[in-house]
Amino acid sequence: MVKIAVFASGNGSNFEHIVRAIENGSLCYTQCVLLVVDHEDALAIERAKRLHIPWLYVNPKAFANKAAYETLIHEKLREYGVELIVLAGYMRYIGEVLLTHYPNRIINLHPAYLPNFPGAHSIQDAYEAKAEFTGVTVHYVDEGVDSGEIIHQEKIIIDPAWSLAELEAHVHALEYDLFYRVIQMVVKQIEEEKQ
């Protein structure tokens, strides 16, 4: 059983889909033991309460620097026995403290077909660029911006008639279908390494 912590900044819909996949047996050998948020009013907190998942709000502005902020988070992750960090709409760069303690154990869901459209506004960027396709990528996190080793990605061919909202809906639907399957691949790899 691999214990995961999900990091989110806002809505938390991907967080809920991960927990539901664990509950219904689609995502096996996995236990979500903690939600970490960096916004006090993140809707993900309400989802965590409803799903009976412990949650932790850490205010980045209350710390002198990123290292101090991440050190507190790392202490909590250790308390919960977290082995894998899953970033699901977490809008903050991961720093040296977590990267050092979780090498190749932090994965991120990015709503674009990397290396195209990295950064915070990837769906809108693809839409405004009138790109032929976009997609969803799950990758390991490194010190760069959406630059870590790609684990898996899938494309969406963009219908030129789609509105931005329609494109967002297609991307999110693919996220929900793809993310838990890729987490399963990573969890299986971690379990194999333990043996």
Word description of this protein:
- By secondary structure, the protein is of the alpha/beta class.
- Helix content is 40%, strand content 22%.
- It has helices at residues 13-23, 43-51, 66-79, 96-101, 122-128, 164-194, and strands at residues 2-8, 30-37, 55-57, 84-87, 106-110, 133-140, 150-157.
- It is globular and about 50 Å long.
Q: How is the secondary structure organized here?
A:
Layout lengths: L1 E7 L4 H11 L6 E8 L5 H9 L3 E3 L8 H14 L4 E4 L8 H6 L4 E5 L11 H7 L4 E8 L9 E8 L6 H31 L1
Parallel strand pairs: 1-2, 1-4, 2-3, 4-5
Antiparallel strand pairs: 5-6, 6-7
Features:
seven-stranded mixed sheet, alpha/beta, 195 residues, 7 strands
Using the alpha-carbon principal axes, give the shape.
Answer: globular
Structural class: alpha/beta
Portion of residues in beta strands equals 15-25%
Q: Largest beta sheet: what is the strand line-up? A: 3-2-1-4-5-6-7
Largest sheet: 7 strands, mixed
Q: Provide the succession of SSEs.
A: EHEHEHEHEHEEH
Put simply, the count of helices is 6
Give the low-confidence spans. Answer: none
Task: Report how far apart the termini are.
Answer: 12 Å
Radius of gyration: 16 Å
Give the total of beta strands. Answer: 7
Please estimate the helix content. Answer: 40-55%
Mean residue pLDDT? 96
Nutshell version of this structure?
With 195 residues, this protein is of the alpha/beta class. It is 40% helix and 22% strand. The radius of gyration is 16 Å and the shape is globular.
